[in-house]
# Entry
Amino acid sequence: MQQVDLATGVCIPHSELLQEAESVAAARMLDGRIVAVTGGKYKGKTMAEVWGPPEQAALDTPWTWSALPAMGAGRRRSSTRVMSNGRFVVVGGESEYVYNRMSSLCEVLELGDNTHWGALPLMLDSRDGCACMAVAGCVIVAVGYQRETS
# Structure
C-alpha cells in the first residue's frame, strides 16, 4: 500500500495487506480507519481487514492492518460504501465458488465490541464491478456486469 501526497507528488510506502489478493474493495470509516475486503486469491474465502492504530497504542504509533471476521460468502470484485451511521456495506461481486457467476448479496460490517457481518436484503439483479453510493440512508448500486444470479 502506498500513500501519494497529491500536492507534492511524494509517495510514502505503508504496510501491505495481511492477505495477498487479486481484488480489493475498501472504504474509509467515519473514525478514519480503512476497511478492506479482499478476494480472488484464496477461493471461497473473502478476507476483511482494518487499517488503523493498534489497540492501547500511543497516538504517534504507526497504523497496522488487523484481521476482521471473514464475510459470509466468498466473492471478488464487490463494491463498498460507508453509510452515515458508520456501517460498512459490501454489495455484489463475482462468486469465488463458481467462475463468472455474479452475486446479488449485500452484507454489512458492524465494528465494535462484537464485530460481525450481517446480511442485508438481496439486490434485484446480480452484479459485479458495480459502483455504489450512500444517499439518504440507502445504498444505490449502478452499472457493473450483470449475469446469472448466485
Summary: Residues 19-142 form a domain with the Neuraminidase fold (CATH 2.120.10.80). The two ends are 32 Å apart (CA to CA). DSSP finds no helices and 14 strands in the chain.
